[in-house]
């Protein structure tokens, strides 16, 4: 059932696109601080019936070079509110760190957003491992063990707070002068090693009860946490084999936690570049790669085990080079890089294929992108895709108006939202408060 | 100049009104969790050219009786965003606790809101003294000395973070491939006893630079803090004498901090009840008092030094009682209570005048409310008023459409916004980052 059609999400980062997108003529660089631009992309995504908008969050300076725009400018609660009020059906999944935010605040902000959006929120619960983020809170980063133990406590407290105003606590009986039944709004009194809260949280249920749970990550700790709590996992995978492997690991973690593995949707990333012809698409993506081409050619050499430099850029790899090349098993992008190199492109063109990027990059007319997604989906590599437009200014529309209709025609994607809430559209069971313990299947 | 016309603010608490407002027939009790109701009242306030909307915040359960609605349901960042996007000129002042929120988060959320609103935000920086709020963060309440020392550090760090992205750091030069001048986005590296942050905060200036500073409180610690940092002080005062006294104390605190005392606007609270006739207005306010009438009659007795009980409700105080009565100097509301009692009302009617409430309560046709405000303003008791509608459903419109035009006709209040930002409308100097030290005047 959930395997019949894929789910689709998109991320609105800085509203510009890949690091050099802001240099393109169609991009207004002022959009980096323009909430109306983000809202416009969210509305486009809703036109495409996408499941949800994902908002990342990094609690530190994200701009590392003057040539890049910052990865994020506006605080995500504010952005989510703007999107919630300008849309009707699409979900919104906000990243909030379990390391530097307090459970009472997390619970309050996200449940408010869930009420205001009419039951369309999700929480991407992640730990923070960046020392610069810790320094913004006057702290140092804890080891991974501690961060994930804290995350586990924080998630439990947040969910308990969500449930602390019972679903039928609101009465509003004017004759009896009873606004609520106060016996149904009770403290949670949770005290952990890393986090505590008394409660209750004075917010009623949303249309879907409480936010959906997401997690982004790939480490064993990450999968163990997601296996216990997540409805959605966002991954970073470069090949179908790697994706299947990670999806299976996640499903085992869910089973180990006593859950039905079908209850977690595994999302694979994709950063498409779409144009009318393959050549135009490659040129478009190439422009976004060019400023880093010298760094990238050296990096490519390390990926495929050849000593490459700027002098190699404008010729294809020779037969001798290709037979000496070896994909580096430590970086799964090396397999794709070698595959493209074997097609006979010049080294520069290989790099223009964005073989060194954060997610796979189908580049070409809409069919190329739809084919990539269908192939992965049918191979059991993903339950859904997490799509980053290359340049938001026209890349979001290109995906929504070019790729989505193809996926719909092929029966791979919905033509209408299943329901009103994010739970409805993802097919996720009702949950209110802490999840009831499951018996092992 | 700032004394020529008064400033006006209103508070949107739960969107219902005084504790028993939800019982009135014109009130939809579902509004307690309805962002659209709050936005509607904000738009009405903007129609009245009010300076700002104030959003309070209490980090714990606010509902103490089943007969009351909670004081607040939706988290204020979300509410402020909704209001910012639905309005153009009115300011929004959000309360954020310096006790339980981290400076990096405070700075980030409020500067984002300032950018998104086009320079219309303010920060009501207060300490939290409620043990139930502390328990929601797994903590206990510190003594007042510590809370205010922490507030001082937190405010400094927040303002330094606001200034850490310099006003001219954004370049967006596509030819030179420079998005920003990174030398103008620098860490603050502030380490205090109670709070620390590295920075920088990656958010550009808003149309007014950074949010305006407000503070609500009355203790000597509170005035000392406000004297150092606030542009706005919200007070709780019941008589003109008390208000003048507090306003002078605040102005002395500003002078002691090396500032011009005219740079802080002192707001006095008022909870008007407006109707076509005095009798209708008194009946309306009376309905909001009646559920507590028994408690209140005992309380009134303590205020004016008489043993009053339910049997006294339906007669005026006798000449003997009136001559024995003494206003309790520990509670300034006692003076007003005695004044009303001397007018010959029954004890019940005295209480219907809302003599026991959080702020003075002018009750009657719009003229009565306008007279109250003009009298206080001309007596130097306030620079502005902080208005709580009794019942939002019709009380906000009654103030905006009834009282504001009178104040405008009398030249006491603006007929058009002076500018686009909250600083423009309050007449507050530009500030970016930490305030430059002033020489003592
Ligand atoms: C697709 C994806 C998106 C992510 N988004 C964020 C984010 O927005 N903010 C963040 O702090 N970390 C983000 N992360 C990082 C992870 O949540 C996690 O911190 C990181 O993978 C290191 O975790 P580990 O300690 O388990 O190795 C993301 C990771 C992935 C794979
Ligand atoms: C008009 C007014 C509004 C206030 N609003 C809030 C509020 O929204 N949230 C809050 O926690 N405290 C609020 N307070 C409480 C004060 O900020 C302060 O905590 C209280 O006066 C006790 O402070 P003290 O320790 O200086 O005595 C308000 C006070 C006044 C006078």
Automatic annotation (TrEMBL), chains A, B:
<feature type="binding site">
    <location>
        <position position="57"/>
    </location>
    <ligand>
        <name>FMN</name>
    </ligand>
</feature>
<keyword id="KW-0503">Monooxygenase</keyword>
<dbReference type="InterPro" id="IPR036661">
    <property type="entry name" value="Luciferase-like_sf"/>
</dbReference>
<feature type="binding site">
    <location>
        <position position="219"/>
    </location>
    <ligand>
        <name>FMN</name>
    </ligand>
</feature>
<feature type="domain" description="Luciferase-like">
    <location>
        <begin position="28"/>
        <end position="381"/>
    </location>
</feature>
<dbReference type="InterPro" id="IPR051260">
    <property type="entry name" value="Diverse_substr_monoxygenases"/>
</dbReference>
<protein>
    <submittedName>
        <fullName>FMN-dependent oxidoreductase (Nitrilotriacetate monooxygenase family)</fullName>
    </submittedName>
</protein>
<feature type="binding site">
    <location>
        <position position="95"/>
    </location>
    <ligand>
        <name>FMN</name>
    </ligand>
</feature>
<dbReference type="InterPro" id="IPR016215">
    <property type="entry name" value="NTA_MOA"/>
</dbReference>
<keyword id="KW-0288">FMN</keyword>
<dbReference type="GO" id="GO:0016705">
    <property type="term" value="F:oxidoreductase activity, acting on paired donors, with incorporation or reduction of molecular oxygen"/>
</dbReference>
<keyword id="KW-0285">Flavoprotein</keyword>
<dbReference type="GO" id="GO:0004497">
    <property type="term" value="F:monooxygenase activity"/>
</dbReference>
<feature type="binding site">
    <location>
        <position position="148"/>
    </location>
    <ligand>
        <name>FMN</name>
    </ligand>
</feature>
<dbReference type="InterPro" id="IPR011251">
    <property type="entry name" value="Luciferase-like_dom"/>
</dbReference>
<comment type="similarity">
    <text>Belongs to the NtaA/SnaA/DszA monooxygenase family.</text>
</comment>
<dbReference type="Pfam" id="PF00296">
    <property type="entry name" value="Bac_luciferase"/>
</dbReference>
<keyword id="KW-0560">Oxidoreductase</keyword>
